[in-house]
Amino acid sequence: MTVALTRPFTGRLGSTSRSRPRTGVAVAVAFLLLALAAAAVPGLFAGDPLAADPLRVLEAPSAAHWFGTDQLGRDVFDRVVHGARHSLSIGVAATGISVGAGLLLGLLAGLTHRYADEALSRGFDALSAFPLVLLALLFIAVAGVGTTSLIVAIGLAMMPHYARVVRAQTFVVRRAAYVTHAVAFGGSRIRLVLRHVLPNVLGPVPVLAMIGLGESIMIAAGLSFLGLGPQPPSPEWGAMISEGRGYLHVAWWASILPGAVVTAVVIALTVTGRRLQRRFEGREAA
Amino acid sequence: MIEVENLRVVFRLPKRQVEAVRGVSFRIEPGECVALVGESGSGKSVTARSLAGLAGPGAQVSADRFTVDGRDMRGATGRDWRRLRGRFAGLILQDALVSLDPLRTVGAEIGEVLRTHGIGERRDRDARVRQLLTDVHVPEPERRARQYPHQLSGGLRQRALIASALAGGPRLLIADEPTTALDATVQAQILTLLAERRAAGETLLLISHDLAVVSRLADRILVMKDGRIVESGTTGVLLSAAGHPYTKELIAAANGRRRPARTEPGPVVAEATALRKVYGDRTVVRDVGVSIRRGEIVGLVGESGSGKTTLAQLLFGLTDPTSGHVRFEGEPFSGIPERARRPIRRRLQFIAQDPLSAFDPRWTVRRIVGEALGRGESAEPVLARVGLGPEVLDRYPRQLSGGQRQRVAVARAIAPRPSLIICDEPVSALDVSVQAQVLDLLAGIRETDGTALLFISHDLGVIRDIADRVLVLQDGRVVEQGPVKAVFDHAGHEYTRTLLAAVPKLEVRT
Amino acid sequence: MIAAAGRRVGAGLLVLWVAATAAYVALLAAPGDTVDSIIGDGPDSPLIRSQIIAEWGLDRPVILQYVDFLWRAVQGDLGRSYLLQRPVTEVIGAQLWPSLKLALAAAGVGIVLAVVLAVTTRRRWARRISSVSELIVVSTPPFLIGIVLLSVFSFHFGLFPVSGDRDLSALVLPALTMGLPIAGTLAQVLRDGLDRALDEPFAVTARARGLRENAVLVRHALRHALLPAVALLGWSFGVLIGGTVIIESVFGRPGLGQVAVSAVSSGDMPVVMAVVVFSAAGFVLVNTVADLAFLLIDPRLRRS
């Protein structure tokens, strides 16, 4: 008779528990698609975000008002749906700026002369010395309050992160044996960079950008919460949370439900991004 | 002392189950030295580790009989196992650089066994640690105990690891590839140390891929393949009268086989004169001269840090020598801009030890080999030459086995019909049976294409099997060179003799 | 060793210089007339204007003003606030302690929580629950965490004050708000580090000595897992500083964050600059501490 031995040591179960169920990713992707749709055609999902009804002020969530109403009697759900356009486009634009600039400067540092790298790297270091929010604050102090300066501020503040990752990745790839090896086929330096270095450096960037997008959205919400973004009555998520804060003791929904949507978007981005990241690494590592 | 019947180990992975051990039975008697021999994936390590209850995460172990030290360990609890570990059985793993905690001192690592099992008085433990280090012949034990693993040489580190396994006074030592990461001379010293422990009455379970290493020590050998024991017997009988074809294959690989040149070497392809390379204040290569002729295989042998790899980089034109020069096909190849080398680059190829890192991970085999081919040439004939079918064309390097990868590397190297291929430890990462195949392949290419090979290896056995001439490198200097037979049979230099003496040979004791 | 230390100090000074210069450039680029900013709502006449220009040295070439600014900054004088008419070091010094108190408390909460979470939740379900909560916390804007905590603990249960900085109880929610995101990130990094360390051969060796799994975890793996966590020190500092700006506003606490926000919205550039220079100095300090911690934990980095 074969008797099973107890499992001799109960360490972690390899990487089993690290892989989250696929359903989570599916829900995340579906939610992101919905959010995108809301940003594209908000009218399809919700009514007028500015329609105030003085008779229905600060009403709790109900079948008629899923997320309740705010202090002016506006439907919070309608505002959240319309806010998607503001908040998502701010995040996407800021991420676009930071990824674009980071990519350019990171490659410049990684591929050109040693002194250029030294100068740029010190620059990135110095910029990273500023906390993101403070850097954005400084920029807004100079450029004035407004949506555009909010976007540029976040884009600038997050740029060093991407630049450093790209630079480091460039160095890793440049030193990789397969790049050294390509010398054996007598290709020129430019050919080497185009065929081996660039594709391997660029590969992970979209996924990083996706995870970074979540962070941009959070910082944007934070800054507009401080009143440094789109101004009322614009239904931007951070601004909504800020407006609703004054009524927290009577109507938590006006502030917390828009906030929950921000969290959900960021979680969905992170979950999807990590999943893609794992798949990306999986192709190389498994 | 140990009785195992029908041992099975299954690993449950997220998507599949892996049967690592499929019904293995054996006994180990006190005072015996038993060896488990097999190639990677044969289940030898898992079998040995399951004797200490350490088969690994996610492992499900079952057996009809599983007696360790007279106790039935079926259904044993974690506490039961912990009582055995360190006290009854000590475990020695491959590379002490990672098998000892790199963040703790050697002394702390050795002392941990004493502390865990409450052996001796607290105040005596330092002295005990020093004694243990002395037992395994570590000089200056006091100083060494305070050092970290990375501050010790490979040999000393491995000794410290053995000391930590010995600390609890175990009766059984399980040594899992204890010498694989070491240079040949150090390997020989560690084997001597293990023989010493055995003479002192310790029971030894030795796990190795290398029959030669094992034959020096083992009383009995169990040969494993695909999770089963395919053959077992006393060392003498097994080595002289192996029954199973797989055992025969292993023995053949351990004995090696000369692959002599059938044609005379042609004109000189590449030559280096008075090469010297200095990095900072370190001279890595000192006045090395070498010439390689068409159809010739030149072996370059030396231990780690002898300057082999730097020499290869100099010849390949990856870095310029501090002084001296390299000529390739009669033209200067060093001291000229890379632009000038490019037109002749394809005539000189390179094969690295780890082909995986030498392939762009995003590229399929088709593209990898295609890069080396001329316009309009197909990859299939070249792959066929290295014994690979068209089914690998669309695979990524990660999806190939180690042997297949090295074949792709060879295909890529021969595709541009080079006159010289520099091979840097091309078979060191491969199982012995695969090693033999790749060596056959390289020797065959020399024969058919007349390609010259510079073959770098720390493994004298491999050099003996394939090279026509050999250069022995020590501290960046060529201390001896000549035809393989002459050097191996009548080594002139002391260092060469040490190297040769350290090479493990199949010893058939009767 | 000395050369390395020298390089580190040099790099730190460089960061400070770049920070100060960036702040100065921002000052020049700021919209509006400096004189207007200084006058604010006060009396305005050509005489007062010329007095101000003379007093602040605004008629000298920009480069001279810049050099003068740097020279005074080296001596610890970062100028005077336009609005408060007091030296900015004084303005900031007065608000430093409340912010520092909050940041330290938050860092403490974050680190302790992270280590406890990473070490205790090794089993499958605990691990999954913990990972999901970490993901949620990390993905929530910190001010929202503050608002949720406020509405639950202050408005609903009335356990903690809604705003202000009167006593220790007023510190609990803000510190938790700032500490949670740090704990979330750190716990993830620590858990990954533990996983990796426990897969290493030395962990097998340690188990083979008869060590309990917990002892392997605490005595061996944890130190390895701390290395990547220490690398996040600089980042956490950024989160803390950025956090004070927003969290102080949520909880109506005095502090540097409040000073920074009001200075930005009123164009009081000397104060903005001082906050920037201060935080850059803090960053340099924290990173130096991180470098030292690396040396302390990992002997392989020490060069003999």
Provide tags for this entry.
heterotrimer; A: 286 residues; mainly alpha; MetI-like fold; 68% helix; disordered N terminus; C: 304 residues; 2 domains; 13 helices; 77% helix; 0% strand
Brief overview, please?
With 510 residues, chain B is of the alpha/beta class. The mean pLDDT of chain C is 85. Classes of the chains: A mainly alpha (286), B alpha/beta (510), C mainly alpha (304).
CATH class of chain A: Mainly Alpha
Q: What is the rounded Rg of chain B?
A: 25 Å
User: What is the CATH architecture assignment of the domain at 288-501 in chain B?
Assistant: 3-Layer(aba) Sandwich
Approximate helicity band of chain B: 25-40%
> What number is the mean pLDDT of chain A?
82
Number of strands of chain B: 21
Unreliable sequence segments of chain B: none
Structural class of chain A: mainly alpha
Mean pLDDT of chain B: 89
**Oligomeric composition of the shown chains:** heterotrimer
Q: Mind telling me which CATH architecture of chain A this is?
A: Orthogonal Bundle
Number of domains of chain A: 1
What is the level 1 CATH name of the domain at 288-501 in chain B? Alpha Beta
Largest interface: A-C, 51 and 60 residues
Beta-strand fraction estimate of chain B: 25-35%
Count up the helices of chain B: 20
Distance between the termini of chain A: 37 Å
Strand line-up in the sheet with most strands of chain B: 7-8-9-3-10-11
Order of helices and strands of chain A: EHHHHHHHHHH
